[in-house]
Amino acid sequence: MRTRTAAVAALAAALVLTTAAPAPAAPGKPSRAAELIGRQTLPANDGWAAAGTGTTGGSAAAPDRVHVVRTRAELVAALGGDNATNAADATPKIVYVAGTVDGFEGPDGALLDCADLADPEYSLPAYLAAYDPATWGRVNPSGPLEAARVRSVAEQTRQTQINVGSNTTIVGLRGARLTGLTLMIDRVANVIVRNIEFADARDCFPAWSPADGDTGNWNSQYDQISVRRSEHVWIDHNTFTDGDNPDSAQPVYFGRPWQVHDGSVDVTHTASLVTVSWNRFTGRDKVMLIGSSNTVGPDVGRLNVTVRHNLFDGTLQRLPRVRFGQVDVHENHYRLGGPGFAYALGVGVQSALYAENNFFTLTGDAGPADLLYDWGGTALTERGSWVRQGDRLPRPVDLRAAYNAAHDPDLGGDAGWTPTLRAARPLPAPLVPFVVDAFAGAGRLPL
C-alpha cells in the first residue's frame, strides 16, 4: 500500500509542476521555470534512457551555449554553427525554441518549396510517365529520372534534416513548433527533446517501391525525430501531427496513396536506451518504428526503449512496431479505430515487447483482436490492458488471447524479461486515460 501511495503522490507532484504558472521572463529570455526545465535531467529509473549514466542532455551547458532560437538559421547556429558538422559538436548546449521554426526556410528567410529543392532533371509528371507499372513493370525504378530524384532527396536532406550533437537539450517555449524538418539524432549520446509541436515533416520526392506489398507503395524518407546509432535519448511532452497537410489530402498515383510522411519517432540502426514519455501523437499513420530491418546482426541486444504515458489519438499503426529490442510499453492511452486503422502493437522479429496497464478506446469496427499484429515475432508479455469499445463500459481484456483466437500462429505469453527501470509502480489502467489525456503533449510544462 505504501508503494502505491508513494507512486500516486509522486505523480500528483509532477502534475502540479506541469500546471504551475511560469514566472514572467525578461524580453528575449526564457522564464525562470524554463531555465529550470532546460537544466532538468531524466529522473532516476525513468525507463531505458535512465540506465547506466542516465540522460542529462545539455544540463551542464555554459551560459554562452544557451540560446533562444526563432528561425532555422538560429537553430542550426545554436546547435553548433554548421548543419553538416553539428552532430560532432558534443559541447553541452541548451536550445530554447520560440515560435515556429520551418525547415524549408531559405538563407534569406523566405520559405522554399519542393520545386526549389528539385534537381533540374527531375519532374514528377515525367517520373510518373516513366515508371508507370503498366509499362515499366514491377521492378525498381532506375535510369536518369530516378537518379535525378535521388539527387533531389539529397538536396532536401541538406535543407530539412537538422543534425543534433551529443549533450544537447532542446526545449520548446510556450507555443513552440518545428515544421517541415527532421531532428536527426545519429551517432550521438545524451539528448533531450521536450515541449515542442512537430508538424508535417514532408518528403517532396517519395520513392516508388513496386515490390512493397501486393500492388507497390510510395515511401517517404523523413521522420519527425529519427534516433539512429545513438544512446541515452529522452523525448518528453511533445506533440506530433501532420499539421495542415494530412495524408488524407494526398493524391493517388499508380493506384497507391502518395505517401509524404514517415514516422514520428523512429529508433533504428542499433540505437538504444531511449525513453519516450508524455507525448501526444495525433492523426498520424506511421508513428514509431523500433528496428528497421529483419536482418539478424548488430541490432541484437540493442533497441531497448521505454514508451510510457503517451496518447495515441487517431493514429493508424506502429504504436510501436518492434524488432529485436526489449521494449517496455506501459500506461499509454490509445484512441483508435475508423478508416485506415491497422494495428497498435507490432510484434516483430526477435522482439521482446512488455505491455502493461495500457488503455484502449476503440471506435468503428476495431476490436481487441485487431490491436496486435505479428510481424514475425513469437511472443510478448501483455497484462493489465483495459478496453472501451464503442458505447460499452470499459473492461479488462487479454489482448493476446483475443489475438490468438482470431489468428494463427499463436503468440506466446512470455517476452523473456521483466522491466526494472520504472520510476513508480504503474497506475491502474482505468486511471490512465484521465491522467494521460490531461497531461500528455506540448504545452503542459510551465514554460
From TrEMBL:
GO terms for molecular function: lyase activity. Coiled coil: none annotated. SUPFAM superfamilies: Pectin lyase-like (SSF51126). Residues 117-366 form the Pectate lyase domain. Keywords: Carbohydrate metabolism, Lyase, Polysaccharide degradation, Secreted, Signal. Pfam families: Pectate_lyase_4 (PF00544). Gene3D superfamilies: Single-stranded right-handed beta-helix, Pectin lyase-like. This is Pectate lyase. The lineage of its organism: Bacteria, Bacillati, Actinomycetota, Actinomycetes, Micromonosporales.
